[in-house]
Amino acid sequence: MARDHNGIDWHARAAALSIRGEAVIDGRRVAALDGATFSCLSPIDGRRLTLVAAGDGPDIDAAVAVARASFERGDWSDKSPAARKRVLQNFAALIEGATEELALLETLDMGKPISDALQVDVPATARCIRWYGEAIDKIYGEIAPTSRDSLALITREPVGVVGAIVPWNFPMIMAAWKIAPVLAAGNSLVLKPSEKSPLTALRLAELAVEAGLPAGVFNVVPGFGHTAGKALALHMDVDAIAFTGSTATGKLVAQYAAQSNLKRVSLECGGKSPNIVMADYPDLKRAARAAAGAIFFNQGEMCSAGSRLLVQESIRDALLEEIVAIARSMPPGDPLDPATRLGALVDEPQTQRVMEYIEAGRSEGAKIAVGGQRVSATGGGCYVEPTVFAGVQPGMRIAREEIFGPVLATITFRDLDEAIRIGNDVVYGLAAAIWTHDITAAHRAARALRAGMVYVNCYDADDITVPFGGFKQSGTGRDKSLHAFDKYTELKTTWIDLA
Q1: Phi, psi (rounded to 5 degrees) for 428
Q2: Distance in angstroms (rounded) separating the CA atoms of residues 33 and 17
Q3: Residue 5 pLDDT grade (very low, low, confident, very high; cuts 50, 70, 90)
Q4: Would you call 151 exposed, middle or buried from its count of C-beta atoms within 10 A (0-12, 13-18, 19+)?
């Protein structure tokens, strides 16, 4: 029986956990208006965790209506920055107080290791809420440099009602990246979590009300993308829509926004990020550890995953040997065991998708250096070995398409120019990395790589103070940092004639 350092038996805790699946609208748990539900299944072993309300158009209408009413009344939008700050700080504290409950919900719902949920997901969620709470009263307006007979004030106002659609891979963190700046700016929010992992979003909404957020300001409607998500993006009374997920779905969201009221759209979509290792980098073991973490953390279910490893020819074999050894040391395991480093994929369809890409890599002539098999870590469930392909050519599907699983495509290159050319030769532009001892090469690569984030001698370095988002078909707009306020506020000019 595996226990963590606090002596918690997570299997016993899971068995005793009471899980609710109703929507949260106007501060209350409510069933879908037509009573429809869907089963929330755990990828750990296929067990049904609960029945979740299957929201549809009428439920979105109800949530948007109360969000609009709360905004127009000024329940939240008219509160002083200091008052909004206090509520968000309380919200962050309640999240921290519910760490074990939220971590367990996250692990049961989408299969990530409980140690990651405890050490990464919950703390990052609380930090995000707290940081934007602190930022509220530190944003100033501007005075334009007009002539002396006029005064032009430039101020920010909340955009109104914001719809947010978030993915299943980091349910809490991705939700927090929307929730925190949306609420900090004074908006009201309707959040549609992924049907694959809705549980923590629903609990966060309850905690927000407990923290003092007025009812109706933050609503969560679970449901499917083609029903609830589409209804939210098409809604004529939603002023902005923020989406994180696949590029294909992001394109649909943009279309829906244009077809309805031309609402503001921000999209954080897919990636196929190049991780470039030059022969002059002096510490191959460090580069190998980072490369493995870049693709195997969170089971590879990351839009910013370093899924393409570009290695200079002379060090290919040595680096690959190190990465293969790391992959062998982290077999998929029970996510409720604190020692597990690689958990379950989110569900059966995603597991089958990953296995189809592995077969595509084989059929196109790439060689599996390690992994490649589906395994049963808990007598069932959705588990795939960490997989490394060698001999990958840039035109192969596994080198061009987002797999969203623990599958690494290794490509060799001769010089930096070729590495940059290969790195940029995909439709995505979310992240990239360059490992080199040459400062000139590092700057050349950072300027030339068409990506929203370029890491030098590291991968996936992260802080709430820096923006997150990409170029090309990886999306538009930025999450995190003060730049996120650009998505959720309107700039207003007030011109006063002093003549």
Answers
A1: -95, 165
A2: 26
A3: low
A4: middle
Tokens describing residue 352: 């089958």
What is the DSSP pairing of strand 161-165 with strand 240-244?
parallel
CA-to-CA distance for 492 and 141, rounded, in angstroms? 10
pLDDT at 3 (0 to 100)? 66
Residues in a beta bridge with 492: 155
In the beta sheet, which residues pair with residue 9? 3
| Helix (H/G/I), strand (E/B), else coil: 281 | coil
Contact between residue 294 and residue 409 where contact means Cβ atoms under 8 Å apart:
no
CA dihedral sign, ordered 216, 219, 221, 222: negative
User: Is the confidence at residue 354, as pLDDT, over 80?
Assistant: yes
Q: What secondary structure, in 3-state letters, does 324-376 show?
A: HHHHHCCCECCCCCCCCCECCCCCHHHHHHHHHHHHHHHHCCCEEEECCCEEC
With cut-offs at 50, 70 and 90, classify the pLDDT of residue 7.
confident
Name the active-site residue from 128, 303, 385, 402.
303
Our answer to whether residue 268 is catalytic in this structure is yes
pLDDT of 1 higher than 60: no
CA atoms within a 13 Å half-sphere pointing along the CA-CB vector of 159: 23
User: Taking a C-beta distance cutoff of 8 angstroms, is the pair 288, 323 a contact?
Assistant: yes
Q: Which residue has the tokens 């920010």?
A: 156
pLDDT digit string, tens, across residues 268-322 = 999 999 999 999 999 999 999 999 999 999 999 999 999 999 999 999 999 999 9
Query: How many whole angstroms separate alpha carbon 300 and alpha carbon 355?
Result: 13
Supply 48's token pair: 């049904």
- How far apart are the C-alpha atoms of 385 and 368, rounded to whole Å? 12
Kindly state the average pLDDT of the residues 384-408: 98
* Averaged pLDDT, 192-214: 98
DSSP conformation class of 172 = H
CA neighbours within 13 Å on the CB side: how many for 50?
22
Find the radius of gyration of the CA atoms of the chain: 23
CA distances from 197 to 21, 107, 280 (A): 11, 10, 43
* Catalytic member of 268, 301, 385, 402: 268
What global pTM score does this model have? Answer: 0.96
Close Cβ partners of 418 (under 8 Å, ≥ 6 residues apart) = none
User: Taking a C-beta distance cutoff of 8 angstroms, is the pair 236, 256 a contact?
Assistant: no
Question: Would you give the distance in Å from CA 366 to the centre of its chain?
Answer: 30
DSSP letter at 242? E
101 is an active site residue: no
